[in-house]
Specification:
By secondary structure, this protein is mainly β. Helices cover 0% and strands 49% of the residues.
Amino acid sequence: QVQLQESGPGLVKPSQTLSLTCTVSGGSITTAYDYWSWIRQPPGKGLEWIGNILYFGSTNYSPSLKSRTSISRDTSKNQFTLQLSSVTPEDTAVYYCTRSRQFSDYADYWGQGTQVDVSS
């Protein structure tokens, strides 16, 4: 049973960097062919894919967010992180981390989500 838990500040000031951590239990972020994603949902809007990190450490990002996004990992802690720089109020959303398997476009495990507000 894979479990994911998002953590990080719930409030970030404009122009600063949003930083979230996803802690994984019940599975390893280095398991072959798994990949790990960040997804967000702004108020009143649909889900938006931010990016992912593959089991061997390679990353992919949404074109609209690529210039501001960095996903990394700490394998010793079985965690992966999201950093979104230069945030604005438009980045306010519920942020989720997810797990997907090889060849799948769908996430089979989700964290509960964490609300992040960008405000002064």
